[in-house]
Amino acid sequence: MSTRGATKEAILSKSIELFNKYGFEQVTINQICKEINVTKTAFYYHFKSKDELISDFFSFDNMVSNDDLLDILSVTDFADQAMKAMEIFVKHIVRLGVEMTKENYRIHLRSHVPPLDKSQSALLGSVIPTLIQRAKDAGQVKNPANAEDLLESMCNIASGVILNWAIMGGSFDVLAETRKRFEILLVVNEK
């Protein structure tokens, strides 16, 4: 297979499969290349390292599916829409389980970039603050802080809950805990 023939998605997919099967540290770039019959040049054409591969996998560029959008739009309450949108990020980060979530956090610790960085996504950077502001205007969010600060706090809460979930070995419902913390922060009206 040529460098151009090795798709980024194929490398990503096989790598994640191997990481889940054998563990991140045990899988080598040579093993990934052998499994999908590509050269190291092909791998390095798309990724500089295994860490970059993980970062790319956990990026927000293409994580929102049509089902996710429909889920967000299925409710008319702006506060609930904002929380559902944030939950997309939580689901995406933890979907591969505890060990891959730990690897993702390890990489973020080394690169000094938060796992939930609002500059990485239009949804995170502009849509959610707009939903929060609309919720504030509609009286659905009682916290007086501005929408940008509330989003920043939601990102920090989600990151903390996800990290705690990984440390605790996935022993609690990360989405339920995140939503509970979002509701406390936003001081949402009881329905």
TrEMBL record:
Gene3D superfamilies: Tetracycline Repressor, domain 2 (1.10.357.10). It comes from the Bacteria. InterPro entries: DNA-bd_HTH_TetR-type_CS, Homeodomain-like_sf, HTH-type_Tx_Regulator, HTH_TetR. Residues 28-47 bind DNA. Keywords: DNA-binding. Residues 5-65 form the HTH tetR-type domain. It holds the Pfam family TetR_N. The keyword DNA-binding applies. The lineage of its organism: Bacteria, Bacillati, Bacillota, Bacilli, Bacillales. This is TetR/AcrR family transcriptional regulator.
